[in-house]
Design a protein that fits this description.
The structure is a single chain. The chain is of the alpha/beta class. Among the domains are: 104-213, Glutamyl-tRNA Synthetase, Domain 3 (Glutamyl-tRNA Synthetase, domain 3); 343-465, Beta Barrel (Ribosomal Protein L25, Chain P). Strands 12-27-28-29-25-26-13 form a seven-stranded mixed beta sheet. A seven-stranded mixed beta sheet has the order 23-20-21-22-14-17-24, with no helix packed on it. β20 (410-413) and β21 form a beta hairpin. The two termini are 32 Å apart. The structure holds adenosine-5'-triphosphate and magnesium ion. Adenosine-5'-triphosphate binds at residues 33-35, 43-44, 46-47, 230-231, 261-262, 269-271. Adenosine-5'-triphosphate (ATP) is lined by residues 33-35, 43-44, 46-47, 230-231, 261-262, 269-271. Monomer. It is an enzyme of class 6 (ligase). Belongs to the class-I aminoacyl-tRNA synthetase family. ATP binds at residues 35-37, 41-47, 231, 261-262, 269-271.
Length: 559
Amino acid sequence: MNTKVEKNSNFICQIINKDFKKNKELSFRTRFPPEPNGYLHIGHAKSICLNFELANIYKGKCNLRFDDTNPTKENIKYIKSIKNDINWLGYKWHGKTHYTSEYFSQLYQYAKELIKKNLAYIDQLTKEEIRIFRGTLTTPGKNSPYRNRTIKENIELFKKMKRGEFSEGEACLRAKIDMSSSFIIMRDPVLYRIISTEHHQTQKKWCIYPMYDFAHCLSDSIEGITHSLCTLEFQDNKSLYNWILQNTSVKKYPKQYEFSRLNLEFSILSKRKLKILIKQNIIKKWDDPRIPTISGLRRKGYTSSSIREFCQKIGVTKQNHLIQFSILEHCIRKELNQTAIRTMAVLEPIKISLYNLDENHKEIFIVPNHPKNPELGTHEVIFSKTIYIERSDFKEKYDKQYKRLKLGEEIRLRYAYIIKAEKIEKDKHNNITSIICYCDLNTLGKKPKNKKNPAVIHWISVKNIFPAEFRLYNQLFTTKNPDQKKDFLSYINPESLIKKKGFIEKTIAIKINKNITDKNEKLYFQFERIGYFCIDNLDSKKNQLIFNRTVSLRDSYKI
Ligand code: ATP
Ligand code: MG
């Protein structure tokens, strides 16, 4: 699949093209800067594809840098999963993995530089007071009473902060810029705060931590990032990004450019809110197939190429849109249409007895695994007197609209014969236990002249069944834009997961069982007429197969 981005694909490329015109030797470098405070989601995939693809096409480099400036929210397990997801998406970062925490000593020196230039001071207002003093969009802020401390005093207090002689919230370092700036971000932003939690990389070495705005631009500069790409919410932060670079002794001046973040229908793309879903037991874990984390999508059956294709399709602009979920589904459907093995599965079985066949009747049909790609091979389908069809493929009561099996009418069994439903058997609760049918043995591979062409349904012979669980996923939310709803938890779809117990073809199950212990080997199927499925590598065991529905055969999302 062609997922290559080209040199004219978006507005960022145009900026880079100009930069290269000015400087042919430009050593182009981007970075992907995740906070290790959760798993990656499809929004991050957009940023990953952009940063890594640009590095590819401009023969530059893309760094991976963990933005680890808040140890209270971070965890090593997130670092592992993020690296794994980036690799799975098909990208390799340049050189070693970077951490903002590697630069803590340098950042501390840069902070001291600002103090020495009288451009930063130690404030001792409380968090709440700082907020009130900051003012609003319509009213200017007020200077802190600590703003005019001497440089010497500030240096001493900053050292004291570093030595752990203040407790959390008692002091912080603020830039001295302009409390009446029209950019609220420029009203003496906090640069350093005290956090007394042990850090996963630096352990107990530090108790003061730089804020994102201070650390990010300087880390970009230290790493020689030329184009620092972020989402539109950071537009205002750019003035601070540039202010810090201009007022410290950095050697390199990266530039920040913003693009619109991905918003996807029916989806929450915020780690904080995803954590709430897990905490409240609405979903199981970060890899629940109902959420658009990379691990959830992978488990649902999405391939890395389909996600890359999606990211390319939606493009990169400065306009915020809500992207249709069907675009994501289109990408995986298109791919699986070419690659998935066709086979039959019955999710809600009902028995059919072909009364004119012998108990020992057994025929083997060799059927293609793919209608258009003979390279995918063939498999055997067994036909016999007793078979299962889908409960929804039969209707007892007459219904003119209904095109599948009806009492007194005919239907074609996929790859096999035309049968006619003549009688039904019921149990004492009036449930149908089996449908008694006549099998027209003259109809294999041909259409008798005197008959209409009936609809085709899938089936499995009792001689070829293997039990399986099927997990059918629907959207987790009953609203298209849950991320915009304050009470997003009141829009949970109670039918987001439906489990069915039915059968797959034994001939296929044997092959799957051989591979089931290989967690990396993913097998994709099209269960004819039902949808694309993959084996759930996490919950399946040998002989206990569980399938996740990746996507239905046609676009069918309803709420
Ligand atoms: P979240 O809101 O999910 O917590 P975040 O922005 O805090 O996301 P980070 O780990 O800081 O998550 O993000 C790493 C990179 O991914 C950043 O450059 C960020 O701009 C980008 N990113 C995050 N979410 C999206 C999104 N929905 N669309 C595009 N890029 C995104
Ligand atoms: Mg963030």
